[in-house]
Amino acid sequence: MTTEAELLARRCVEYPKGSPTLSAEAVQRMLPLVPGWELVEEGKGLRLNRRLADFMAAVDLVNKVAALAEEEQHHPDIRVYGYRNLTLDLSTHSIGGLSDNDFIMAAKINRLLRESGA
């Protein structure tokens, strides 16, 4: 079984179009490793909603997530709304669903949240 530490140690890899998505069973096993994230889009995506202290805290977190996304070459959809609310959506677009990359990124984003106190 995969652990959070194992997810954090891994790097995102390219999933060519046509690669299989994670099975529903694999997704259910991995979801507890990324607390705060929920399944969306009929199990084809992960979402994190976060309320931050203020607009600048949201923007600061967006910048940290953006740097991580560039490093991993796996980019979430990012939305800041209502002054200090942030939504992050992860999915592996090339395969139309979830891959290990989404859980790797979710774990690394959770680590950013812990480290930044957000």
Would you spell out the secondary-structure blueprint of this structure?
Layout: H1 4-9, H2 24-30, E1 37-40, E2 45-51, H3 55-72, E3 77-81, E4 85-90, H4 100-116
Helix pairs in contact: 3-4
Task: Describe it.
With 118 residues, the chain is an alpha+beta fold. It has a domain at 36-116: Transcriptional coactivator/pterin dehydratase (Gyrase A, domain 2, 2-Layer Sandwich), CATH 3.30.1360.20. The protein is 41% helix and 19% strand. The chain contains four helices and four strands; from the N terminus they run H-H-E-E-H-E-E-H. The chain has helices at residues 4-9, 24-30, 55-72, 100-116, and strands at 37-40, 45-51, 77-81, 85-90. Strands 1-2-4-3 form a four-stranded antiparallel sheet, covered by helices on one side. Helix 3 (55-72) crosses helix 4 (100-116). The chain is globular and about 40 Å long. The model has no long low-confidence stretch (mean pLDDT 96).
CATH fold annotation of the domain at 36-116 = Gyrase A, domain 2
The N- and C-terminal alpha carbons lie at a distance of 29 Å
- CATH class wording of the domain at 36-116: Alpha Beta
State the order of secondary-structure elements, H for helix, E for strand.
HHEEHEEH
Q: Could you name the ranges where pLDDT drops below 50 across 5 or more consecutive residues?
A: none
| Major sheet summary line | 4 strands, antiparallel
Gross morphology is globular
Mean pLDDT: 96
Q: State the helix count.
A: 4
The CATH superfamily title of the domain at 36-116: Transcriptional coactivator/pterin dehydratase
Helicity, as a percent range: 40-55%
The CATH architecture category of the domain at 36-116 equals 2-Layer Sandwich
* Class based on secondary structure composition and strand pairing: alpha+beta
Strand percentage lies at: 15-25%
- Sheet with most strands: strand arrangement: 1-2-4-3
The number of distinct β-strands equals 4
Q: Roughly how many Å is the radius of gyration? A: 14 Å
